[in-house]
Each structure stands twice: as C-alpha cells, then as structure tokens.
Specification:
The structure holds three protein chains of three kinds.
Chain A lengths: L1 H11 L3 E6 L2 E5 L5 H10 L5 E10 L4 E9 L6 E9 L15 H11 L30 H8 L12 H9 L5 H5 L4
Parallel strand pairs in A: 2-5
Antiparallel strand pairs in A: 1-2, 3-4, 4-5
Chain B lengths: L4 H8 L4 H10 L13 H16 L2 E4 L9 H6 L10 E4 L7 E4 L5 H13 L5 E5 L1 H5 L21 E3 L6 H16 L6 H6 L1 H11 L12
Parallel strand pairs in B: 1-2, 3-4, 4-5
Chain C lengths: L4 E6 L11 E7 L2 E8 L7 H5 L7 H5 L8 H15 L5 H28 L4 H22 L8 E2 L2 E2 L7 H24 L2 H7 L10 H4 L4 H4 L7 H4 L20 H25 L20 E8 L4 E8 L7 E5 L1 H13 L8 H8 L3 H5 L1
Antiparallel strand pairs in C: 1-2, 2-3, 4-5, 6-7, 7-8
Helix pairs in contact in C: 4-5, 4-11, 5-6, 6-11
The chains are: A alpha+beta, B mainly alpha, C alpha+beta.
C-alpha cells in the first residue's frame, strides 16, 4: 500500500520518497511544489487530516526545514512532507486555503521563526506581546542572556554548583553531614 | 412651664452654645471612660475584631495564572475542604481579598495581574505558589517569565514546592491568617507608598501599557 | 434580536474559562456572532528551553506541557526517543506504562466532570468527583512520589518498580470508582437541567470533523471511530481487550456520553493489565545521562491522550541535547480554529460550557 502511495506521487511530482516504517512515509520536495503536493494528497488521495506543521532550524546549513504531516483516516497512513527554505529571507507559500487550521501554525511560525507567509491573515502577535528582539525560536537567540539582562533575579542562583553553599550562608546554619554527601562541591 | 412663646421657639430652633455643650456631654458614647472612641484601648479591640473577621472570610480570586491552579480544585473540594477555614472563591477582583499567583508569570499575564491587583479593594493579600515565583525555578533561563515576583507586587506568603500539595496550600493560608491577626499582612499600603519603585520595575518588563480599546474603561 | 454589536472579552480572568486564555467575542444581544481566541498568557518557551537541556532533563519540562494530564506527554516523548535510538522496552514496563496512562485518563475525566457540571451550575458533582480524584492521585503518590508531575516514564522503561501492595490497592480503588460512577450518572446524566443544556449545543458536523482537525472524544462524539490505541497500538494495548465508545450527534451531550463510557473502558483496561502483569525487569539501563547521546534521526509519535490524539515531532542531531521537540496537542486545533467555527450562533452562557466539553487546555496551545 505504501509503495502505491509513493508511486502515485512519483508519477505527478518530482520528489524523493522513502518508507520509514509500516505507517510512516517520508517525502522530500522542493518548496515550490509543496502546496501542490498537499492539495493533491488531500483532494485526490484522501489524506484529509492535517496533523502537524513543524519547523526545524538548521543554522549550520543556513536552512529552515518545514515538515507537513498529513494522515489518511481509512488507510491509517501518515505522510511527512519535508522541505527546506532559505534562512536569510524565509518565505513560504500559505496553505490555509487548503486547511483552515494551518492558519494557527503559520501565525506561530511567523512569530517564532520569522518565516513570512504572503497573504496570511490574523494578528502578527499570536503568543508574544510587544516583542522587540529577533524571533525567539531561532537557534542564535540566547534566551539565558536575554533573561539575565531583562529580569530581576534573586541572588544565589548565579551558579548551579554552590546552591547548597549559598543556602548555608544565608541561613547561617551548618550543612548536616548527610547533605554534604549529596552536595556537588 | 411658662407660656413664653419666644423661649419655646428658641429651644426648638437654633440652640445656643451652652445647649450644644450640654448635649455633647449627654449624648457622648458611654462605652469608654473618657467619652472618646479613638483612644488606643478601643482601637486595639476594634482592630482585633476586624482582623478576626477578616481572617475567617478570605475570598480567593478565581484566576488561574499558572499550573499551580490544578491543586486549587482539590483544595476546595471534599477531601481537603478549605471552606472550613473560611476560604472560598470570588468571581471578580472587586469582591476578592486574596490574589493567588499560581506559578510562573509570563510578561503578558503580569500586565493583567497588575491590573487585577490594582482593581482589588484594600485590605488585599497576595500569595505566591511554587518555586518559580520565588527565584524562577526551572524557568530561570526562559525569556518570557519573570523570576522574582516580589519585585513587581508585594507578596505576603510564599509557598515552596513544584507544585505545592493541598496540605501546604492550607498551611500557607493558616500562615496568612496568623499574619492578618497580628496586623502584619496586606501589602496594599506598601504598594501605594512605594508605587514609584514598583512601577519602575514593572516598566522594565512591560513595554506597552495600553490595553485594547474596548478594555480601557 | 438586538442589532447593535458589542465586543466582550471572556477572560483571561474569568471563572468560566479553562485555564488562562481569552476569547474575544462579538455579541448581538446574548448571541455570539464572532469569536477569536487569544493565547500566550502561559507561554514559557518550553521548546526553546528543551534545546538547552539534555535528553533526560527534558522530562522535567515536558510533563508541564499540559497540567491535568502530564503522563501522556512523558509517554509520547519516551517512545519517540526509543524509536530514534532503537531501544527495547521490557514487557513489564509496557504494562506499567499502560496502567499509568489509563489512571491518568481517569483522573483527568474526573476533573472534567467537575468542570462540565460546574459550568452548568451543578456544583455537587464537582465536590464528589474532584474529591474522588484524590484516590487516584494517592496511587500515583505511592508509585512515583508525587501527586501531579511524576516524571515516571523514562526511555527504556519506568523509573521504579511497583511498590508492595500497590496492585491490591489499585483493584480496591477501581471497585470503589465503579460504584461511584453510578452516582455520577444519576447526578449528571439523569439531571433534566444538564440534558436540556447539553443537547443540541456546540455541534461539530460529522462530514467536516476530520478535515477541521477534530480528534479524541469530540471526534468520537460525532460518530467517527478513531482512536490511536487501536489504529497504531502502542505499549500493551494490542494485548488488551477494550471498546471505543462512539455516539452520534456531535454536541456537548454526545461528548459527555463518550467520556462517561471511556472511564468504564479505562477501568476494564487497568483490571486486565493488572491480571496479566508479567514479571521481569522494569527498565533497560540507559547510559550516564550527562554523556548520553542519541543518534541522528527524527520521529513523529502519536498517543491517545485524554483530550484526543497528541503527537511529538522529535529531531536529534546526534548530540547530547534534543535538536527540536515539537508538541501538537489536541487543544491546538480545538481551542483555536474549531472553537472559532462552532461558537457563532451560541449563547454567551454556553461558551464556557462548550470550552469544557472540547477540553481546551491553554498551556498545550502556547507551550
């Protein structure tokens, strides 16, 4: 059955297909034809359920990997459509005309990764509010440094190694022997 | 009794200074020896009664700001039954006494929580749940949550743990009741007096203070 | 019908809302004409933080994705790591995992009983069912040491074996709950107020349900039989005998009936699993967690949680930290696009009623 699905796709599109496991099919395609593949899967082959759209930041290769996961309710098969887009100027085709719920995923990706979807409706602010830095889910955004610069912190947590020592200093108590045994110092 | 009409009018009409003085002595409150209410002894008794009443009717605002809110239903229902301490829910901030910060606060929620806190009527108390309100907890490196709650709002009681069990929640409430009875709780006055310091801290985190148009009334 | 349209903000501080979210409603009179979900009040950046933790440390964050049901999250992530790594799980661990997942299902449904009846003004049932939920949390406490967040399932098995006497205690708790379910039935489903409130409210059309992304009890409430436990059996579900209840209608009433019957099936699964519990090891030892690396690969793993199907997309780049862990919760579609479609035409008073029946869990949406 899985070979049939791959053959049918191969006839129409130029893709690299692979059977990963008895219920998973992996397809790698160019970004220009992804929306046509998804429309074909939905309208012609019965993959009417959009499970998920995920995004992975491959900063070493200067690419974003987008993964569209669709599911067939009768054959119980899952197809994962992978595609790579440029990280410097990320633009991807909007598919919320095919599935309405794709709108939610795309708004989140626009905010978290900075990927633009031309024609996407909805507020630009979906999860964050008044965010002025770079999109936070990108790998080069340093969340720890941002948190230390922005928020007031309580002293005693600068270093994970001497938590027990700090507690001891503040409370003025000696650390009992059994606790020393489990201390990192 | 004389039939002098002038005197009759005078008595009923505008009283003389002497009559006023006499009336003040006659109708003065009899409950104290000095005839005044605002002496220290009475104030102590009145304050005691007020604190006693306050500590046994803690209305908790129903605002689940974080994941600690999952133990609130368990605390309120049959096994732990917080209502025997006079603790029960209130729907709106204007009728609530206690604001529970149940866990981490993202900056988006912090803005709403400050507004809710300022809408509450004095005396008002803040209880903070979990280690993430104390020092950030496991979110110490998160870009969207605040780390130390007492820099932004005056906190009366902290409950440690992730998440605190219903028993420790009730223990926290009993501690709050002790503080109320001794007159040590209620950060409303502290917040008003030091508003500049609190506002400065809040403005470091919250960039835009405007709410949506329909919200600003 | 009043012609003037008013904007109404339901939440974030509102007793009827499930968690911390906001629904912006446009209303005419008391009829909703347009709804828009606003989330982000609980955003903790988990997926960013997991990139900074190692594979085992991630469990502390993962179970907090959705507060009422942390166990399916752990289970799904552990299975994803096992699949990438090719790690075997001993049969005893599979059975223990199944029991814990089903116990989590029951406790979450009991909490749902409280929410669903409370949003229609029937507070007695909430006192009973949320009180009885503590008996299941006691079982968790004996097993894992914590009431809510367990961090019990690890890649390669579970953290520790069943304590002595736990199996007998579980049997007793199941007997007690089965008795109590009849009381709940009398209090909620035979109650005229609930019947009138629930029937014909918040209808999801059957022909659109799968396309809209509806999963779990709301999907089975429209008459479509879909359950990950049967479609892609995981852990011990293939060996156990159970049914998947479905009801026609697609309204709040049908969803409530589905949930009522699922508790009975969960009790049945737990009893069978306890009867068949194999002996042997309960985990395959993992390497030192600080030096543990997982080979390159990716996995898309689905689990049937309480709210419906949840999935984890996990990517490993061969290092000691996950490259990407992306959750797709059931509430991600239920709480945003499905809710925006079914709310127009309903009364304001029914909004929190429908929210409870869809099982919208905001931390699952924004993570």
């Amino acid at each position: 059955m899985q070979e049939n699905i791959l053959n049918q796709l191969n006839k129409v599109f130029k893709i690299k297909g692979q059977v990963k496991s008895p219920l998973r099919i992996k397809v790698v395609a160019d970004k220009d034809i992804v929306s046509s593949i998804l429309l074909y899967l939905k309208a012609q082959m019965g993959f009417i359920h959009l499970n998920h759209i995920s995004c992975v930041d491959w900063i070493e290769d200067n690419k974003f990997e987008l993964v569209y996961i669709v599911w067939h309710p009768e054959q119980k098969q899952t197809v994962l459509v992978h595609t790579f887009i440029d990280r410097e100027n990320p633009v991807m085709e909007n598919i919320d005309t095919i599935w309405d719920q794709a709108n939610t995923y795309e708004r989140e990706m626009r905010e978290m990764f900075g990927i633009e979807f031309p024609g996407l409706v909805g507020d630009r602010e979906f999860i964050l509010e008044d965010w002025q830095e770079m999109p936070p889910m990108r790998r080069d955004f340093d969340t720890k440094r941002y948190a230390q610069e922005t928020y007031e912190t309580r002293p005693g947590r600068e270093n994970a190694r001497n938590v027990r020592l700090e507690i001891m200093k503040r409370s003025g108590e000696e650390l009992p022997d059994f606790a020393k045994k489990y201390s990192r110092d | 009794m004389t039939n002098n009409p002038d005197k009759h009018i005078k008595t009923i009409g505008i009283p003389t200074e002497e009559e006023i003085r006499q009336a003040q002595i006659d109708f003065a409150p009899r409950c104290t020896s000095a005839g005044r209410v605002n002496d220290k002894e009475t104030q102590k008794i009145v304050q005691y009664i007020l604190n006693f009443a306050r500590k046994h009717s803690l209305f908790v605002l129903a605002y689940g700001t974080g994941c600690g809110a999952i133990e609130i239903p368990a605390t309120m229902t049959s096994r732990y039954d917080a209502e025997r301490f006079g603790i029960r829910g209130a729907a709106t901030p204007r009728q609530a006494d206690v604001l529970l910060i149940t866990g981490y606060l993202s900056t988006k929620t912090l803005k709403r929580v400050i507004r809710v806190y300022e809408q509450m009527q004095d005396p008002k108390y803040v209880m903070a749940f979990g280690s993430c309100t104390i020092n950030g907890g496991m979110y110490f490196d998160s870009y969207n949550t605040i780390k130390a709650l007492d820099r932004y709002l005056p906190v009366d009681v902290y409950i440690a743990g992730c998440m605190p069990r219903p028993e420790s929640v009730i223990r926290g409430f009993i501690k709050l009741q002790e503080l109320i009875q001794n007159g040590n709780a209620g950060g409303g006055k502290c917040y008003r007096d030091n508003l500049d310091w609190y506002r400065a801290n809040q403005q470091k985190v919250i960039k835009n203070w405007n709410f949506p148009d329909e919200y600003n009334w | 019908m009043i012609e003037k349209e008013t904007t109404l903000y339901l939440g974030p501080q509102h007793p009827g809302i499930t968690g911390n979210m906001m629904i912006k409603l446009k209303v005419k009179g008391d009829v909703v004409t347009q709804a828009e979900t606003h989330v982000g009040y609980l955003h903790r950046a988990f997926e960013k933080l997991i990139e900074r933790r190692n594979w085992l440390q991630s469990f502390t964050l993962l179970c907090r994705f959705c507060v009422p049901e942390p166990d399916p999250m752990e289970l799904t992530y552990a299975r994803a790591v096992e699949q990438i790594e090719g790690r075997e799980v001993p049969p005893r661990a599979k059975y223990i995992r199944t029991i814990v997942a089903e116990l989590a299902r029951i406790q979450s449904f009991l909490l749902w009983y409280g929410g669903q009846s409370g949003s229609s003004g029937l507070y007695t049932l909430g006192q009973w069912s949320v009180g009885d939920r503590n008996y299941i949390l006691d079982l968790f406490e004996d097993l894992t040491g914590a009431r809510i967040y367990h961090m019990y399932m690890w890649p390669g098995g579970v953290r520790r074996d069943l304590p002595t006497g736990w199996i007998d205690k579980t049997y007793k708790t199941m007997d007690y709950l089965e008795k109590r379910l009849e009381d709940y039935n009398k209090l909620l489903f035979e109650n005229a107020i609930f019947q009138k409130r629930a029937q014909g409210v918040g209808i999801i059309p059957k022909d659109k349900a799968i396309e809209w992304g509806v999963v779990g009890p709301p999907l089975r409430g429209t008459g479509i039989k879909h359950d990950v436990r049967i479609d892609e059996p995981y852990e011990a579900y293939a060996d156990l005998d159970f049914e998947v209840p479905t009801y026609e209608g697609g309204d709040v009433w049908a969803r409530a009936l589905v949930r009522r019957d699922e508790i009975k099936q969960s009790i049945r699964i737990i009893r069978q699993a306890l009867d068949k519990m194999p002996s042997g090891s309960y985990y395959n030892r993992i390497p030192n967690p600080m030096k543990w690396t997982v080979p390159t690969g990716e996995a898309w793993i689905k689990t049937e949680s309480v709210r419906g199907e949840i999935g984890f997309y996990v990517v490993s780049d061969g290092s000691s930290k996950p490259r990407r862990v992306h959750l797709k919760g059931a509430a991600y579609t239920h709480g945003v696009s499905v809710l925006e479609k079914i709310l127009p035409g309903q009364n304001i008073a029914d909004v929190s009623f429908i929210l409870n029946s869809l099982g919208v869990c905001p931390p699952e949406i924004e993570r």
